[in-house]
Amino acid sequence: MLLGFVILYLVISLGIGMYAATKVHNARDYIAAGRALPMVIVTAMVFATWFGAETVLGIPATFMEEDLAGLISDPFGASLCLVLFGLFFARKLYRMNLLTIGDFYRERYDRKVEVVTGIAIALSYLGWVSAQVTALGLVFNVLSDGAISQSQGILIGAAVVLMYTLYGGMWSVALTTFFQMIVIVLGLFYIAWLIADQTGGVAPVIEHAAANQKFHFWPEMNAVALIAFISGLITMGFGSIPQQDVFQRANSSKNEQIAVWGTVLGGVAYFLFAAVPLFLAYSANLIDPDLAARWLAEDSQKLLPELVKAHLPLLAQVIFYGALLSVIMSTASGTLLAPSVTISENVIKDFITRRKHLGDKQLLVITRWVVAGFSVLVTLYSLWALDQETGIHQMVENAYKVTLVLAFVPLVAGLYWQRATTLGAYLAIGFGVCTWIPMEIWLPEGEGLMPPQFAGFLMASLGMVLGSLLPGQARHGHPGRHPA
């Protein structure tokens, strides 16, 4: 019966997505929803896209195994990213009337920088989208009591998300996300109320966590610990700023004020509401210590779903899994569309237009083909990561290393430093990659003075400064230029 309700929910989501497809008439509708979205929809999209599988399953699992310091990248870094983007990037980028974040690198630097950063941005999404699809596989596995394997669940989940994203694009993301945000918020608050009734309130859970040193957050006062702490914060806090999904939500706004404050409000809401899954998962220690110990030993990501199945009535289970599916699908659809748009617009389009004129409808067709192709890559990566036993939280955290090293410095310098040049962008990318990749491959995890991506970020900053200050260098574009 529970699985039947979940299937019904999936059908409703597909119906909303297919209705949204009727609003798509051209590539701009598909990619930016016609730049017509109001504050409530933009805020809902920002919140629901970021409130993903890692927030409900991955972050609580990390908290149970470690402590609050283990969450420095997400939700702390993730929330920081959204607030920073809204305050310092949304207005400037919105005024440029771009279609993708990759367009900025072409306008400000040149085509080569656009292609390299576009590929880097798209590749960074493999981990994030795969984390959502992996979570869908986990949900189907738990719901069917193992009758559907997690691998089979991944295939089913990927197919569902692809269907409504493929046709409706940003309109599907906007409408389904608004519906899904309502289900997420109301559903998880209801579950939290039921769980609190079994624990004697919120206070006993907090007291138990405090007694077990779970609120330890600040690092030790030594260089290695401080650098690791800062690196964990900026990997997502800075690395997820040059991302198409963040840009796309701001760029779909009706005006620049909505672009700014919809992003900021979505980030604040994400940070505050991320505490709810932490409370739910940790409550297992008080409600059923044996169940908590079992799933911490086997797979801590399954602890919360198994707690709900074991200790809440059927209606509550239906609501929880509806909310969980909303969480996952709202993130998966938005993060599947974003890299596909980047690839089609910033990598493929120029190669085709060199040979023949590419009309708006042709670009729309190409983008949809790329969405389908990228979903296949995501599915294959999810199955590989499942075999490697890579956790959902780790998959998301790893996703932003590439954009921190390759794309963040050229974006900030291009917007805020008048002297930034194309050579500076080349050297930033080159220095960053040549530092990060060798350290990532040959330096054992946890060893060395600083994490590889942090070293790559510092070298990228150095490359930008050196390349831009060399004599005879002229800047290519203009941060306020409006593309044709």
Written description of the protein model:
- This protein is mainly alpha-helical and 484 residues long.
- It has a single domain, classed as Sodium/glucose cotransporter.
- Helices cover 78% and strands 0% of the residues.
- α7 (101-108) packs antiparallel against α8 (111-143).
- The chain is globular.
According to CATH, the homologous superfamily is Sodium/glucose cotransporter
Mean pLDDT: 84
- CATH-assigned fold name: Sodium/glucose cotransporter
CA-based shape: globular
Tally of alpha and pi helices: 24
The fraction of residues in strands falls at: under 5%
Helix-strand string? HHHHHHHHHHHHHHHHHHHHHHHH
Q: Biggest β-sheet: count, sense, barrel?
A: none
Low-pLDDT regions? 480-484
- CATH class, named Mainly Alpha
Radius of gyration computed on alpha carbons: 22 Å
Fraction in helix = over 70%
What's the end-to-end separation, in Å?
55 Å
Structural class of the helices, strands and pairings? mainly alpha
| Reported CATH architecture | Up-down Bundle
Structural domain tally? 1
Number of strands: 0
What is the topological layout?
Elements: H1 2-21, H2 27-32, H3 39-50, H4 53-65, H5 72-88, H6 90-95, H7 101-108, H8 111-143, H9 150-199, H10 202-211, H11 223-237, H12 244-251, H13 256-273, H14 275-282, H15 284-287, H16 289-298, H17 303-311, H18 314-353, H19 360-387, H20 392-399, H21 401-406, H22 408-416, H23 422-442, H24 452-469
Helix pairs in contact: 1-9, 1-18, 3-9, 3-12, 3-13, 3-18, 4-14, 4-20, 5-11, 5-13, 7-8, 8-9, 8-18, 8-19, 8-20, 9-14, 9-18, 9-19, 12-13, 18-19, 22-24, 23-24
